[in-house]
Amino acid sequence: MKITVVNIGSERNKGTAAITFGMLRLLKKLFPNVHITCVSLYPSVDMTYKITKRFFPEVNIVGNLKPVYSSSASKFMESLKVLAFKGVPIRRYLEHPAIRAIQKSDLVIARSSPIFRSKSPFLNYSAAHASIPLYVAQKLNVPYGFAPQTFWPVRGLQARKIIRDLGKRAAFVFVRDVYSFGELSRIGLEPILCLDTGFWLEPIKTKWDAIAPKLDLKEGEFIIVVPRSTGSKATDKLVYQNIARVLKDLRKKIVVVCHNFDVDIESTQSLYSQLKRMDIDVTMLPNEEWSPEELAGFYAYGAVIVGMRVHSIIMGLVAGIPVIGIDIDGRMRAILKTCGLDKFAIFVNRLEENKLKEKIEMAVSDRQSLSQLIVQYIKIQKEIDEMKWYQAVEAIK
What we know:
With about 400 residues, the chain is of the alpha/beta class. About 45% of the residues lie in helices and about 15% in strands.
């Protein structure tokens, strides 16, 4: 069987890499003889996926169908073209590696994409860009489906049209949270609720023995914090101050981790500096060249993760440790609610020190029992969802 996974993102974002790694693990587990090609969101792949290629040398990775447009005018024109022509002129690009891969596939799977985001009430460039490989699959009569992703809230008329058009002809549409399930059900689709593919990561713990003595870490005795920007420097400052005051009271070693090396470096450094100024025992994890599975393996040794990135929380759950999710746009709460853990989510605009401290202390004190519940839940849910995946893919044969 040949499967092409489209719209894989940069592995500099450890969450995006977790989705890709988990997808590959899941497909290989269910279909051991599968041949997989991945189509990137980016035109060049030589240096973009060196970590992925290290772990999956047999997987072919090719560039996208169009360059990533940077100017607003180009994005506007690209959105209009997709709206009008639904994809790319196939004949002009028949020899492109991505189109050849789609043409030879038994199935195309769209990896999670940010197609719900848009500042415009009309056009949505992210949705237009991510839809191109699927419209190509439509024109070539190749079955396609959606991997579990967030479709909530769907903003913009173009995004709703694209999702409705593509969803109605899809072999399957998986969603990863209950809110997305409701959103797509309301527009007439039949979504299937399933765990994010990041849950199929296989944690690798080999980094711990080398890094623990260097950073003076002891198992279960340190708190992992994964920051990100809220989009407002004033809000960021307030949030980091609140987090810092709570962590100072807890008197634990703190490990600050950057999850997205494209956009989070400044946020990570800002929080680290804030903690240093308050004489908190803090260190930064040198994880830029780590795979998401190596990072998840490291997380297994922490007491708790306080994360502002969705996949920091998912990777913590995969590692089997308690998590506290600081929610910025609703996705964090949606994921935790779907897992029955929404009591461990806090909206960023309601980040009261007492509540955050209370949740962290509860997670740390109940670490062992919470870990057992987390591991048991994920094991059972993965077995259920693997059957959903198997049936969905088998149905196209």
